[in-house]
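Quick note —
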Amino acid sequence: MGLSGVLLSVIVLSAGCFRDAASLDRDEENHPLMKKARDLRDGGEFDAAIDTYQVALQKKPELVRAHLELAVLYETHLGDYVRAIYHYNFYLDARPDTKKKQLLEDAIRHAEQKFVARFPLRPDVERAMEQIQEQNKNLKSENMLLKHQVADLTLRISGESSSEGALPPEESVAVQTDETTPDAIQTATRYKVEKGDTLMRISEKVYGNPRGWVKILEANKEKLPRAEKLKVDMELIIPR
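Predicted structure written out below.
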């Protein structure tokens, strides 16, 4: 391949890096195995859904969206916080421009806290989690550096000025915490659980993303101590 061919390949690959994360997710969600896994998840067959997402990744490792789905399933339905943290981090490292970035970082912290809470008398575990957090921070810094280097290389190749090809500013994302205040509950709406609903699915309906399930669970912890206790016709508080 000649020099011009190499340069063209770099430009194409660089452009692909800056595709909107949401559009990449939508493309991947149309994969047959992703659809099958989603149907299993929505039907409450969580173990089968996890197996199907894993098969999808084995057949097509570039299905990054599968890592996000696995993270939520491991955290929500299996309480496997280590695997959940791994898959959350994998998704964020692959899609650092996602609008769900703050929500996912909150999810990672929540999973870390839940994991550490299992070992209250184990300082070595807490140190290990601190190391994981530090490694995650370093990975994010390295990812951002590479992103800037690719953008700079693209500009040099195309001959554009540095100001024209600057990276777009990161969009701010509303923060959702696991804490539900009394004021939030007073201004909440109500939702009646339908057949096939999961907390993730309800969160997608009312908030537009699956991460709000923690918020809903916290607001209804008296009647819904665990996510798997969700029942049809149950009336839930949906905090705002």
